[in-house]
Amino acid sequence: MPELPEVETVARTIRPRLVGATIADVEVLDPLVIRMPDVAAFVDGVLGSRVLSVVRRGKHLILELDNRRSLMVHLGMTGRLTVGGADAIPDHARLRFSLSTGEALWYADLRKFGRLCIAEDASRYLGDLGPEPLGNELTLGTLLKAIKGRRRPIKSLLLDQTVLAGLGNIYADEALFEAGIHPCTPSGSLTEADAARLLAAVRNVLTQGIANHGTTISDYVDAQGRAGQNQHLLCAYGRAGRPCVRCGTAMERLRLAGRSACYCPVCQPAPETI
DNA sequence: AACCTCACCTGCGGGC
DNA sequence: TGCCCGCAGGTGAGGT
Question: Does A2 participate in catalysis according to the annotation?
Fold first, then answer.
């Protein structure tokens, strides 16, 4: 569910409620969401520590603690991190962190694909993660190097978190639509101009997603339980059978890398080599 | 090495 | 009404 804009929105909305607060108690309601061999080690890692900062990296949330450790959170498909009353138990609640402020940080997750753990060294834990697409980390040169000589479909490459961090199925479809590139295009066949257009489109769709507080299809909410608004602005994702916003042609859907991809057969012409 | 498929979970909506 | 199927923003293990 949550891609970079959604995770960024969660980070921004939990930050003011968490920074400076101490985690007074932890209740593990479902150990499946703890990605550690020992749940007790997870509890020990956070109990009594103060939150120094809340950082987003790709689709990961990092809560830096004053015990030199980091609480790592990945929301999976349906994970929700909300701050609220200690008694206001959300649906599918999996964890409750009781805060010194009197509030609680809840982790809820319908499908339980999300994971939390304690990392001694957050940057080592995220060692394989590619560059951030916003800011200066990801350059056209980096992208060109990543696509060079690869026959892998460009959408599959965009979803690869070691190539760039934070894109998911929604924003990959949106970026390819904006750039006018078919999702199956072999990565290595893109010209430098194609890659430049794609990089600009990736940044555009992510920036717009953040500006609109994320895309809510069914589950995503921010720390205060508010839905995003970006779903009203999608041009490609989930629009199979509906008219292209640019040319009116019926949008199509195909299966790629185990996910569905929506695209306009006219604005995003199929590559010759398929 | 590069790439693909499936498994992991739960719920929902469509077709019969 | 109810069953069965496919589908859903995420990885990550294991196969070719």
Answer: yes
